[in-house]
Amino acid sequence: MQQWARFAILGAMLVTAYLLILAWQKDYGHDNASKPATPAAAVAHDVSADIPNAQSTAASSDVPQAQVTAAAQPNTAAPTNANQQLISVKTDLYHLWISPKGGDIVRMELLAHDKSKNSDQPFVMLESDHQRTYVAQSGLIGLNGPDSNRNGRPNYEYEKASFSLEDAKVVNQDGKSVKVLNVPLVYKTPEGVEIIKTFTFSAGDYPIKVSYQVLNRGTQDWQGQMFGQIKRDNSEDPGKSDQGIFTLGTFLGGAWGTPDSHYNKLKFDKFSEEKLATEATGGWVAVVQHYFVSAWVPGHFGDKPYQAKLESRKAADNSNIIGFTSPAINVPAGKTMTVDATFYSGPKIQSELKDLALGLNQTVDYGWLWPIAKLLFMGLQFFHNIVGNWGWSIILLTILVKLILWPLSSKSYRSMAKMRVIAPEMQRMKEEFGEDRMRFSQEMMALYKREQVNPLSGCLPLLLQMPIFLALYWVLMESVELRHAPWILWIQDLSAMDPWFILPLLMGATMFIQQMLNPQPADPMQAKVFKIMPIMFTVFMLFFPAGLVLYWIVNNSITILQQGFINKSVEKQRLNKDNTVAN
């Protein structure tokens, strides 16, 4: 029975390792070679060339097909800006550039996030050049929509080419004074229709409101639809973690949600084969990568939310497009209508994403152990608010978890301590009944019953730790709050491997000490296998995130103290019992 218990413990450890490797391979890792970003933000590839109007028969159209309810009327191209310089917008969180042609966001740099832990350059979220395409597009299509123009997408007029929070106005939002920056783009048609596309930015917030105000001063009704979409090529995830020999990244692809189906993933290579095509009020679409996400959330037509069509497709250049289209909007002559949507591009901060759209916070993908992972993250946040350091937060969380599991683990360790105490008696029985296996098993079971020992209880502590270990791994890998988070001394990134391998060696040492406190196998072969295990797991942990190894060290250290105390207590009780029997 004891032999089976030991094999169960070994099996549980191997299953833990296997589940981690399996999880890595399921969604993650890409073969595309990494492409360096072009630092010159003002030079952007003309993505508008990839977006002819929806009424054109050109096969390369990236614009979603409009709902045309009347005979199409040709649009006349509006006057264009001679200067096609990109419009620069800088807030406290990002620096982005908007193309006057179509009003697309063609580049975005996240000022609060570095490109890498050894770089002071900002992380480039969106960009459009000859090496990489990842842009946020929006427009008006349909019967009179300017983005359905046969002559190409509209060229917007603008007040100036550079905006910052210095241009912002202070407004009252929910009882707080907030700086709000509006960047208006204007397009006028010969038919007397003026379209004002406005980007609204708020200080301290990542979401961007994109609204279209259609002022119909003409003599005929205006009809169109708003669309918003994200276009991305198949280049590698720039936010992917480097874990030494394991170059890991979380899911890279599309995602979408509705009130009925909160979170769904869609790989890029499935954009045509299993393409998204659904309608919902309160839905969203996104492109997800490691630590960061870009998402469109359909908004309101006037003051009412509209039912949007969510869809995905492949572009002619094999790029990936996921977006939404609003229902047809009719603006009678002499009337004004407004339609809007919200665009988010930045870190996967759960609290902000949760408020933006139902299910969008689930892009922080903690896998099938997400309930445990969310609890762990909440615990980490709680301690971080107190100590201000994620490393110490991991230590305090580990102590808390051990305290919660203390009653169950103590029972198990007490049973293991009794196994250690009766080990000499078992060895004597083995020598006495070694040839009679049935008799030996009977005597051994009687001994277990007499001493109230459960040999399988040694598996319980590890089985309890397995889901916590796996869930914490995903918390460390997916929570942008821990990206490049330092602890002390040489540990400057808890989400990456220990560069000096000190923590894995300490973990191996604590595992060896803990193993010595357990009852030793009677079989010499089993004893050799268990002595090798700390070495095996030390090598395995060399390439794991330092925060996860830190958790395991603290967990082992507390276990050593707990098990050592229980071992002494059980040995003392046994000694007192023997003395009582002798007297």
From TrEMBL:
Domain Membrane insertase YidC N-terminal positions: 87-377
Subcellular compartments: Cell inner membrane; Cell membrane
GO molecular function, one term: membrane insertase activity
Annotated membrane topology: Multi-pass membrane protein
Transmembrane segments: 7-24, 390-409, 453-476, 534-554
Bias type Low complexity, positions: 63-78
Membership in a protein family: Belongs to the OXA1/ALB3/YidC family. Type 1 subfamily.
Name of the protein: Membrane protein insertase YidC
Source species taxonomy: Bacteria, Pseudomonadati, Pseudomonadota, Gammaproteobacteria, Moraxellales
Gene name as annotated: yidC
